[in-house]
Amino acid sequence: MQAFKKFIFRELIFALILATIAFVLFQTVLKEYYLPVFWILFGIITVFTAIFHLSILQVSDKNSAKFSSKFMMVSGIKMIIYLILIVFYAFSFPEKAQIFLISFFILYMFYTIFEVLLIVNYFKKKQE
After folding, report:
1. pLDDT (tens digit, 9 = 90+) per residue, 66-122?
2. Which of residues 55 and 101 earns the better pLDDT score?
3. pLDDT of residue 64
4. How many angstroms separate the first and last alpha carbons of the chain?
5. How far apart are alpha carbons 125 and 37 in whole angstroms?
6. What percentage of the chain's residues is helix, strand, coil (to nearest 5)?
7. How far is CA 56 from CA 27, 42, 98, in A?
8. Does the first or last residue of the chain, that is N or C, have fewer Cβ atoms within 10 Å of its Cβ?
């Protein structure tokens, strides 16, 4: 649980930095591309990243031999949930779908890189 508390703290800092950058960009350079739903998307990705990271940490503590298959399962579930969100928004608001998809992709990449780096760091420390 200590690793998860550390992750939550780091994710909070990461989210604040990312939100500040997004806010500044949407107020200046990207003003015409701003979607109010961006902040909801930002919150959903932040929360799902924390939930799935917790499940990955729990799986790694129980049985490291089955970690890779459980990790793939958790990643697959996360991708299916994200795909449902994307499809729902794209069909509901087709005129704004392109901007939404680009925003989603950028957030998804940032959070995926962040999570993978912390998972790798966690396992390095665990092996030591």
Report:
1. 778 888 888 899 999 999 999 999 999 999 999 999 999 999 999 999 999 998 888
2. 101
3. 67
4. 18
5. 38
6. 90, 0, 10
7. 36, 21, 31
8. C
| Count of domains for the chain | 1
* Residue numbers of the domain that contains 58: 40-123
In terms of pLDDT, which residue wins out, 66 or 50? 50
98 found inside a domain: yes
User: By C-alpha distance, which of 27, 29, 15, 77 is closest to 52?
Assistant: 77
| 92 within domain boundaries | yes
Query: What is the three-class DSSP state of 93?
Result: coil
Yes or no: say if 100 and 41 are a contact pair by the CB < 8 Å rule: yes
82: nearest Cα among 36, 49, 125: 49
The type of residue at 7 is F
Nearest C-alpha neighbor of 41 from the set 54, 28, 29, 26: 26
CA distance 115 to 6: 12
Rounded to two decimals, the pTM is 0.90
